[in-house]
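### Sample
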Amino acid sequence: MKKLDYVTSQFLSEKESWEKKLASVEESWRLKCESMKGQSNGHVEDHLQKNLGEWTLKYEKLKEEHESFRDISDRMIEEKEREIAKLLNANKDLHHSLEAKAAVSKRDNQSPGYVKQDALSIELAEQQILLLARQQAQREEELSQSHRHILALQQEVEDLERENRLHDQQEAMLKAELRNMERSQKREGVDMTYLKNVILKLLETGEVGALLPVVAMLLQFSPDELNKCQHGVLSNVASLPATALSDGGSTPNSFFGRFTF
């Protein structure tokens, strides 16, 4: 602070000295000009007028330099004043901070219950954190149990579906076996004479399309067996030579005409 005050006072003193010098120079030149004007005549007056112009230019130049130096000095003084103001504000803030810290320290020393209250608050916060942690762990355990229960239920569903498919397969097998038994029982009551005549008619005429369903009914063919017979007849007819078909020796209704005994 003392150094800044010293620099400021020095700038101010220099400014005042320059102003005094400028004023003295102006006054001396004014007096000199007046004396020279009083003594001048004709030719001398022209010479003096020329000298006066030169000295006037020098005076203006010195005045400009002085103004420039004064502006620089003013700016430097303003900067120093701003720095001083900043330092003063910082010093004031520091004093306030120290006073606040001292007040807080004094209050803490005078009220030990405040410290106890802080410790109690911290302890309560820790207990609450522990309680929340236990609740979170319990929720995670419940979630894990629910997940395991869901997996067990999914496994049970898969087992039930597997058993259901097995039951369906067994049911289909039992139904097929039951139909076979029913067909066997029906075959036991077939009139063998009638069956013989139908087979003879089939062999004599070869009318497969008309007599094959009759034979299938008498012998209780299953639908699969009937389809196999029909498919075999059609495939054999399709494999006959074209000449045989054109001669009329074999048709779908006279399939057995191509056999030789």
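Helices lie at 2-39, 42-110, 112-188, 192-205, 208-218, 223-238, 242-247. This sample (GRIP domain-containing protein) is used throughout the tutorial notebook.
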